[in-house]
Design a protein that fits this description.
Elements lengths: L1 E9 L10 H14 L2 E10 L10 H11 L7 E4 L2 H4 L3 H13 L3 E4 L9 H34 L12 E4 L2 E4 L1 H16 L4 H10 L17 H8 L7 E4 L2 E5 L7 E5 L7 E4 L8 H22 L38
Helix pairs in contact: 4-5
Length: 337
């Protein structure tokens, strides 16, 4: 009887053929029992795309265990090849590595068996097909989200602070809306800094209800800035303000960047109720841009500050940098202190 590992995965984009992790495992175990294979370990990645293996912790742990010959396995069992990898480079790379350790990949539903030469060739071909299929899924998903945004509907899985999702529509949360209005008031009317507003909210024991991947109840400067910069609070729906690009010099690495081409950004009236007036949002937007331009001017300074980037603030953890402040206006003929 040969030893084998089980590997299962479901994606945040689509669950293959509706099969959950448990359903995949059940099918694989039935296959193993039928073929007299002993399961000595299982690895599962939930909510992980197959586009890049480096971002799948369970998959990487399995590969490390194979490299260490932890259980001397002869096979890795998967529901389908697409659960193992969804791009050509990863498919070829990891199948080759498995082969170097004498380990074959068996696909329960698609009949893949890379312990044979023919099976390995078919697996690489199917890996290329899976990559094309994934790109098609991405394009269809993007198109659907764009259409939803143009209809004035919220696209996110979680509602932004200040709102709740009811029947896929944004509804105002009165208590949170009060906080949103206060943030805009402090920033626009009183001219307070984002740092000041963040500290005041936390000092006043204002908390955020954890939702989605956000588990922090405290406010951060990033959170406050995001609220001030989100047109949803003015009754608008914006989509495409950030987009994903490929990292040069890598096969599958991507990063999210700001969209500089405004023609690709969707900005329409939403079907939800606004929390703040549009003129207040536009004033906040103008102030944020001025502050951003000011920070850029400081960073472009030709003055050299040797300790810039080497010291971190003990409170917020951000890098401390130096800049030359303009002279303060004189009082009574004397320079301000």
């Amino acid at each position: 009887m040969e030893n084998a590992y089980i590997y299962t995965r479901v994606s945040t984009i689509i669950q293959v053929d509706g099969f959950s992790l448990d359903a995949q495992e059940e099918e694989i175990r039935a296959f193993a029992k039928l073929h007299d294979i002993s399961i000595v370990g299982k690895y599962s990645d939930e909510g992980k795309s197959g586009k890049n293996a480096e971002h799948r912790p369970a998959f990487n742990q399995m590969m490390n265990d194979i490299r260490c010959k932890k259980d001397n396995v002869k096979f890795v069992l998967v529901f389908k090849l697409s659960r193992f990898a969804r791009n050509t480079s990863d498919t070829a790379k990891y199948l080759q590595e498995l082969a170097s350790y004498g380990v074959g990949l068996l696909g329960v539903k698609d009949g893949i068996d890379t312990s044979t030469v023919t099976g390995k060739m078919i697996a690489n071909i199917m890996g290329a097909v899976a990559e094309v299929e994934l790109e098609n899924i991405h394009e269809q998903t993007l198109s659907g989200r764009q259409q939803k945004a143009r209809s004035g509907l919220w696209n996110g899985a979680q509602a932004p602070f200040g709102y709740a999702l009811e029947n896929k529509t944004l509804k105002i949360c009165p208590e949170e809306a009060v906080v949103v209005k206060e943030i805009f008031r402090l920033f626009v009317d009183e001219g307070q800094s984002i740092r000041y507003i963040t500290k005041k909210l936390n000092d006043d024991n204002v908390r955020r209800e954890p939702r989605g991947n956000t588990q922090f109840a405290l406010f951060t400067e990033r959170t406050v800035r995001a609220i001030l910069n989100n047109p949803v609070y003015a009754g608008k729906i914006a989509y495409g303000r950030r987009h994903t690009i490929k990292v040069e010099g890598t096969n599958n690495e991507t990063k999210v960047v700001k969209q500089d081409d405004t023609s690709k950004i969707i900005l329409v009236d939403g079907l939800h109720e606004a929390i703040i007036a549009q003129d207040i949002f536009f004033r906040a937007e103008t102030l944020l841009k001025k502050k951003a331009d000011h920070r850029k001017t400081r960073s472009d300074s030709t003055t050299v500050y040797p300790l810039t980037g080497l010291i971190r603030c003990p409170d917020c953890g951000k890098n401390i940098y130096g800049y030359t402040a303009p002279p303060r206006p004189k009082k009574n003929g004397k320079g301000g202190s």
